[in-house]
Design goal:
The protein is an alpha+beta fold and about 300 residues long. It is built from 6 helices and 17 strands.
Length: about 300
């Protein structure tokens, strides 16, 4: 059994930036969950995408509807933005798909992706946050929970806000005070091992640390355009100590910051070592995430057993 496999940097203007994802194109191949997980472990990326046409008579050039699943090196996830963008880049660029829009059928419902110029625009569900972190099971009080979580994540900084997003990944959202500099955000060194030990029961699967952009804290891009917000994302429970650029996290951040700033058009930076910029357009129940992608590796993988 042999099929094409690619490595793509998503949310990247050029190679070796943004967030890398592996993409496997499947047609007649049928892989078990165990096989997909083994491939994801072998690729050793935050996510490996497995995509196939829904209609057996379709090809990657002519098809419009595809099945899509994502695996980390440890488990399957319900939503992954950057691997969806990477998959779209391969179908449009390497298979010359003839359609204006692709629809991916996933565990998070239908996801629509279009190519607009040199950018990929993803239409995703908008996922909301709530302040009721104390309602999580096995957390005795709101205070004890939040203090432990942000101690492990942001050290001695007192957060301005703490929220929880049950969908898509059970994320805690920690907002740093507006007076915090971008350098401080980029310099955080969370104890991801301690995070996993402190919350092993699955109620927490990710931590988003976010900061409002402003002229005083260095929150602008290379051309001088101001970021509305910046963030970092940590998901050691999914085998990802830090994710470089996270589309799914921006479905949460888009909801939060749109409400905080009373804006629907947002510009964001994920401040990992690789980093990446994301443009967001927030609607009532959906959010559009736009960015570029760069293809790095292409080849074939052959399974011998």
């Amino acid at each position: 059994m042999s099929f094409p496999i690619f490595l793509v940097d998503a949310f990247a203007c050029k190679q070796f930036e943004g967030n890398p994802a592996a993409v496997c194109l499947l047609t007649n191949e049928v892989l078990s969950d165990a096989q997909m997980l083994k491939i994801a472990v072998e690729m050793n990326q935050s996510e490996t995408a497995f995509v196939s046409p829904i209609n057996p008579s379709d090809t990657f050039q002519t098809g419009e509807h595809f099945n899509l699943r994502w695996f980390t090196p440890t488990n399957e996830v319900n939503l992954c933005g950057h691997a969806t963008m990477a998959t779209s880049a391969i179908i449009f660029e390497k298979r010359d798909n003839i359609n204006e829009q692709l629809t991916f059928h996933t565990k998070s419902g239908e996801l629509m992706i279009s190519k607009v110029g040199d950018e990929y625009v993803m239409d995703f569900p908008l996922n909301h946050t709530a302040p009721q972190v104390s309602r999580l099971e096995n957390c005795k009080t709101f205070d004890s929970f939040t203090r432990l979580m942000y101690k492990l994540s942001i050290g001695k900084i007192e957060p301005q806000d703490v929220q929880y997003a049950a969908i898509p990944h059970r994320d805690v959202v920690i907002r740093l005070p507006d007076s915090t500099s971008r350098d401080v955000l980029e310099g955080l060194k969370p104890d991801t091992t301690a995070m996993m030990k402190a919350f092993p029961d699955g109620h927490i699967k990710g931590v988003i640390v976010t900061l409002r952009g402003c002229p005083e804290n260095g929150g602008k891009d290379e051309c001088g355009e101001m970021f509305d917000f910046m963030s970092r994302y940590f998901a050691p429970w999914n085998g990802i100590p830090e994710d470089p650029v996270t589309g799914s996290a921006h479905t949460v951040l888009g909801s939060y910051w749109s409400g905080q700033l009373n804006k629907t058009e947002l510009y964001a930076r994920q401040c990992s070592a690789r980093g990446g910029n994301v443009r967001l357009s927030v609607k009532k129940t959906r959010v559009n995430l736009a960015g570029k992608a760069a293809i790095v590796v292409e080849g074939n993988i052959t399974l011998t057993s």
